[in-house]
């Protein structure tokens, strides 16, 4: 179901239902009433992926209805940002006349920003050649001349052709300060920019007056690390994905922040390092015992925290946990609530018109 015809009243009803569901999940942990952060009702998704349908020489964006599996032609997509909606028809118009751009094109991925930059990836079931590259450059130049600040990438099996850059630089106003966040194609970034701002400001709010340093796991491109840096003496953050770590390093200097250190490590490896089980070259020059962390911040993938990481996290007086999956959050809280109590709870509506929920929990040691 696309949100085309869904009125605001339906949005409100769905959000109220999510809140009730969260309250009932959190009742077991004596959590306070959730603070609820709404999404815009349209144009909230900064990323979108569409399959491409070929009808003779004609091409169009399609999606599949999740219930019926039927193909739906998509000419405009109100859930996606205004920029994605501007780029969609212009891109197809530019591709359609050229067989070498059209042939075996099966998917288009859009990554847009509030800053006006957009990265578009064209995915093919064939290898891309010099001719493709020339046409793609022309297409990019034409779209740029029409005012779309676009980067174009071609992808095929074991092939990636990046004409210039494979990233866009987002600019978000967070608590009155403009933050720059490099976002790389095919790497994790929060999908709903307006709700992301709410999440960053909420995390800043709950960590105001914190003492000491912050330890962060699953930091992505430094989204929270940089926004929270002002509330701590130092921030030590870890992330597994190389492109995200590179983006985070860029973001540290772009935002002129000098108290954040990012290490490329999985949460599991970092837990082993903290427990002294293993030594890592990547930690050379970093004395973990020098950090005085009273707060740990985690924003794991849908699978939540593994058993060893939960134990490690549990050693900290304050745990700030952002979760995109209330089921794994609830499983993890069963253990964390043995030592900590929930003092703040938030529902962020990252995914309007779906059942997905994003939550924030502050836990403090009993
Ligand atoms: C939900 S995202 C959060 C990213 C970041 N906090 C943000 O707001 O953009 C989870 C991140 O965890 C990373 N990740 C996934 N598995 C991991 C693991 N085992 N150890 C460390 N990081 C992992 C992913 O690459 C992704 O960047």
TrEMBL record:
BP GO terms, sorted: tRNA methylation
Protein role: Dual-specificity methyltransferase that catalyzes the formation of 5-methyluridine at position 54 (m5U54) in all tRNAs, and that of position 341 (m5U341) in tmRNA (transfer-mRNA).
Record: active site: 324, 324 (nucleophile), 358 (proton acceptor)
UniProt entry keywords in alphabetical sequence: Methyltransferase, S-adenosyl-L-methionine, Transferase, tRNA processing
Endpoints of the signal sequence: none
Reactions that this protein is recorded to catalyse: uridine(341) in tmRNA + S-adenosyl-L-methionine = 5-methyluridine(341) in tmRNA + S-adenosyl-L-homocysteine + H(+); uridine(54) in tRNA + S-adenosyl-L-methionine = 5-methyluridine(54) in tRNA + S-adenosyl-L-homocysteine + H(+)
Family membership: Belongs to the class I-like SAM-binding methyltransferase superfamily. RNA M5U methyltransferase family. TrmA subfamily.
KW Transferase (keyword) present: yes
Single annotated GO MF: tRNA (uracil(54)-C5)-methyltransferase activity, S-adenosyl methionine-dependent
Entry EC no(s): 2.1.1.35
A GO cellular component entry from the record: cytosol
Family matches, as Pfam families: tRNA_U5-meth_tr
Disulfide bond is among the record's keywords: no
Organism (species): Budvicia aquatica
Protein name: tRNA/tmRNA (uracil-C(5))-methyltransferase
Binding of S-adenosyl-L-methionine, residues: 190, 218, 223, 239, 299
Domain of life: Bacteria
């Amino acid at each position: 179901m696309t949100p085309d015809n869904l009125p605001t009243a339906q949005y409100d009803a769905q959000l109220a239902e999510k809140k009730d569901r969260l309250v009932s999940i959190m009742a077991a942990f004596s959590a306070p009433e959730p603070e609820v952060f709404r999404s815009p009702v349209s144009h909230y998704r900064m990323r979108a992926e569409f399959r491409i349908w070929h009808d003779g020489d004609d091409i169009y964006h399609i999606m599949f209805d999740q219930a019926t599996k039927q193909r739906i032609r998509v000419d405009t997509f109100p859930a996606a940002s205004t920029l994605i909606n501007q780029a969609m028809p212009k891109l197809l118009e530019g591709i359609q006349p050229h067989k070498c751009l059209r042939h075996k094109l099966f998917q288009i991925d859009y990554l847009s920003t509030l800053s006006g930059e957009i990265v578009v990836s064209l995915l093919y079931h064939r290898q891309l050649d010099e001719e493709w590259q020339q046409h793609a450059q022309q297409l990019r130049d034409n779209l740029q001349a029409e005012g779309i600040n676009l980067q174009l990438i071609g992808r095929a099996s074991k092939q990636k052709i990046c004409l210039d850059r494979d990233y866009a630089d987002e600019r978000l106003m967070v608590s009155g300060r403009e933050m720059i966040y490099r976002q790389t194609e095919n790497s994790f970034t929060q999908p709903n920019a307006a709700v992301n701002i709410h999440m960053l400001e909420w995390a800043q709010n709950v960590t105001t007056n914190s003492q000491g340093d912050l330890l962060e796991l699953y930091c992505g491109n430094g989204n929270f690390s940089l926004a929270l840096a002002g509330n701590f003496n130092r921030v030590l953050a870890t992330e597994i994905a190389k492109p995200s770590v590179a983006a985070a390093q860029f973001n540290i200097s772009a935002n002129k922040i000098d108290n954040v250190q990012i290490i490329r490590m999985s949460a599991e490896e970092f837990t082993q390092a903290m427990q002294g089980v293993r030594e890592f070259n990547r930690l050379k020059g970093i004395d973990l015992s020098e950090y005085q962390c009273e707060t740990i911040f985690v924003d794991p993938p849908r699978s939540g925290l593994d058993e060893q990481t939960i134990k490690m996290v549990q050693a900290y007086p304050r745990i700030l946990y952002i979760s995109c999956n209330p089921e794994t959050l609830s499983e993890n809280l069963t253990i964390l609530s043995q030592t900590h109590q929930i003092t703040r709870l938030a529902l962020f509506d990252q995914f309007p018109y779906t059942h997905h929920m994003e939550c924030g929990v502050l836990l403090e040691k009993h």
